[in-house]
Design the sequence.
């Protein structure tokens, strides 16, 4: 379970996009479709309302294509059909733009949907069935035919859904773009922290060997001080409370790691700071301190920068409060999404960003055991059942060797999630997985709208993605003529 702070940083990325998406919203229509709670139980007829957005502004009727933006582990917003690379391409190709919210997130949820007994209807399999039913609903509502070519788009978890939708329902969606898509489920995702370490060393984005060494040293120093004087650490790092026991200490270490992890994952996307700035703080030597003290104080300074930019008065490290928040089943927590996503990590994906590996630059206190004990505590899911659940997901979808055609996997060299995606072309292996690799880019960077400050590698990657979309639309048109 990623710590609380990583989730907050992700929210800030969305909020930043919301502020920038200043286009008039009059083009966007909001709708609801009543989806079955369980598509696979013929006797279960209960439904829930699923929210979607439609933007017809660019659509060249009647034959224009359909670009579907798939919602992931959080609410969808109007800007999902107004801004971003898929929207730029929709304008160019006269596409009807759609966004569908994932079941049990945002507003697509029944009043009692977050109670543990009702969460059994929350899964990626059900989400893909929702997409299939939505396809039918839209096709009827807009009188679409075979000549309307569907292409799906998604990033991160929804990027995996985009690839899987094409894999499981190839007759419904002609091609899929899957950005930063972790298609391989993994229980112990220790490679995440390792990849963060490599990005901190990457000189092309402002990292250095010295920076990684300073981060390692800082975490070791915090651990050492906490062993003898926890209240001093709480004071130095602006915590809301002194850690009561081991659980709170782990929470603190997780939160500090999150600040570094969030910086790397969203490098140069305009939230928090960049790797270049973080390494500037960690390696800017002054004569006043010994090395360990120096590193400790530098990390405290990073925590301070996070505070001042987040408008949070202090760093909340109460594990008890984390658990209490995750047990909240009231609907307003549907906007927060942490409970639902924790459930999906326990039942399908794992993705636990642990630090037991020697290559991890953070604190070894963040173990697989400490991360997975939330599963029995919140949902009664035993820890020993987790490997089997994760293995099933990979059997069901094909892991990172899926035999899917016309799926484009896009990854950034700085993004830790690339470790669970498809990063090289698989055409020679019987599949037709195509890849775009953006050397210096972070998580989902290609999905953002174009900015003047974009690196050359990102501009080239977007052109490459556009090239694939153009080819797919031409191929589909030729097939329709036959």
Sequence:
């Amino acid at each position: 379970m990623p710590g609380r702070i990583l989730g907050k940083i992700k929210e800030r990325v969305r909020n930043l996009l919301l502020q920038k998406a200043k286009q008039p919203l009059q083009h966007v229509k909001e709708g609801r479709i009543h989806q079955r709670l369980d598509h696979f139980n013929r006797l279960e007829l209960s439904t829930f309302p699923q929210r979607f957005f439609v933007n017809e502004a660019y659509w060249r009727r009647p034959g224009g294509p359909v670009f579907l933006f798939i919602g992931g582990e959080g609410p969808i917003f109007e800007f999902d059909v107004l801004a971003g690379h898929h929207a730029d391409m929709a304008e160019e190709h006269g596409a009807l733009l759609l966004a569908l919210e994932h079941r049990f997130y945002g507003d697509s949820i029944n009043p009692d949907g977050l109670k543990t007994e009702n969460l059994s209807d929350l899964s990626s399999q059900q989400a893909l069935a929702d997409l299939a039913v939505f396809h039918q609903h839209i096709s009827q509502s807009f009188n679409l035919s075979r000549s309307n070519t569907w292409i799906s788009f998604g990033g991160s978890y929804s990027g995996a859904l985009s690839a899987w939708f094409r894999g499981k329902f190839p007759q419904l969606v002609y091609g899929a773009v899957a950005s930063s898509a972790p298609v391989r489920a993994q229980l112990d995702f220790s490679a995440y922290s390792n990849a963060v370490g490599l990005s901190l060393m990457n000189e092309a984005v402002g990292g250095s060997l010295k920076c990684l060494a300073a981060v390692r040293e800082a975490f070791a120093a915090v651990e050492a001080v906490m062993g003898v004087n926890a209240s001093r650490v709480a004071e130095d790092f602006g915590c809301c409370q002194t850690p009561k026991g081991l659980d709170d200490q782990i929470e603190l270490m997780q939160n500090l790691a999150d600040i570094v992890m969030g910086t790397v994952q969203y490098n140069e996307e305009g939230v928090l700071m960049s790797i270049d700035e973080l390494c500037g703080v960690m390696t800017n030597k002054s004569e006043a301190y010994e090395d360990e003290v120096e590193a400790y104080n530098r990390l405290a300074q990073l925590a301070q920068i996070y505070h001042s930019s987040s408008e949070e008065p202090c760093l909340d490290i109460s594990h008890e409060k984390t658990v209490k928040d995750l047990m909240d089943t009231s609907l307003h927590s549907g906007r927060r999404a942490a409970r639902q996503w924790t459930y999906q990590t326990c039942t399908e994906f794992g993705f636990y960003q642990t630090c037991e590996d020697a290559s991890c630059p953070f604190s070894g206190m963040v173990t697989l055991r400490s991360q997975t004990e939330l599963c029995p505590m919140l949902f009664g899911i035993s820890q020993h059942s987790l490997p089997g659940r994760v293995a099933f997901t990979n059997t069901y979808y094909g892991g990172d060797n899926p035999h899917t055609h016309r799926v484009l996997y896009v990854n950034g060299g700085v993004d830790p999630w690339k470790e669970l995606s498809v990063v090289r072309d698989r055409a020679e292996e019987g599949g037709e997985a195509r890849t775009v690799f953006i050397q210096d880019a972070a998580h989902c960077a290609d999905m953002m709208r174009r900015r003047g400050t974009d690196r050359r590698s990102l501009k080239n990657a977007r052109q490459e993605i556009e090239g694939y979309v153009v080819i797919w639309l031409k191929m589909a048109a030729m097939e329709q003529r036959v």
User: Anything to note?
Assistant: Strands lie at 28-36, 47-55, 66-70, 96-100, 150-155, 175-179, 186-188, 350-352, 405-412, 432-438.
